[in-house]
Amino acid sequence: MRVVDRRFLGKIPPGQVEFGVRANDAGALTAWVQKHTGPCGSPSSSEYYWDKVSNVTPVNAAGRDALTFDWNQQPCGTPYTLHLTAFVLQTSHVFLFSWYSQDPAYSATLKRIADQMLASFSG
Fold first, then answer.
1. How far is the CA of 1 from the CAs of 4, 54, 97, in angstroms?
2. Could you report the average pLDDT of every consecutive run of 10 residues in the chain (123 residues)?
3. Radius of gyration (C-alpha) of the chain in whole angstroms
4. Are 75 and 51 in contact (CB under 8 A)?
5. I need a surface site. Which of 3, 19, 78, 89 has the fewest CB within 10 A?
6. pLDDT at position 1
7. What is the DSSP letter of 40?
8. Residue 82: closest CA among 98, 59, 93
9. DSSP-based three-state secondary structure for 36
10. CA 41 to centroid of chain Cα atoms
């Protein structure tokens, strides 16, 4: 799902927040992240969501055990680093929340917004 501030309609915003639900096909979150890490340009049929992650850290998010990690997309040709948080929903799904900023001056603002959105999650 994507939400855009009206002032950015028809324009590229300086960053964004995204979230979605994926199948939990690996059990533990660390194993799930590893299973879905693959080479740049992999076909989506391979179910690789990112090519290389860093700063994998266990945290508590939305009252649940979670992992945060970064995905630097620069080696794959995109000038962003996504900041992701993943946690298990029920046992069969993973909630994946991410944000990035194209503008370093906007990063702190967007991080604050993303943190507020994630903290408000219930479900």
1. 10, 24, 10
2. 72 86 92 91 79 93 93 84 93 93 88 91 81
3. 15
4. yes
5. 3
6. 54
7. T
8. 98
9. coil
10. 18
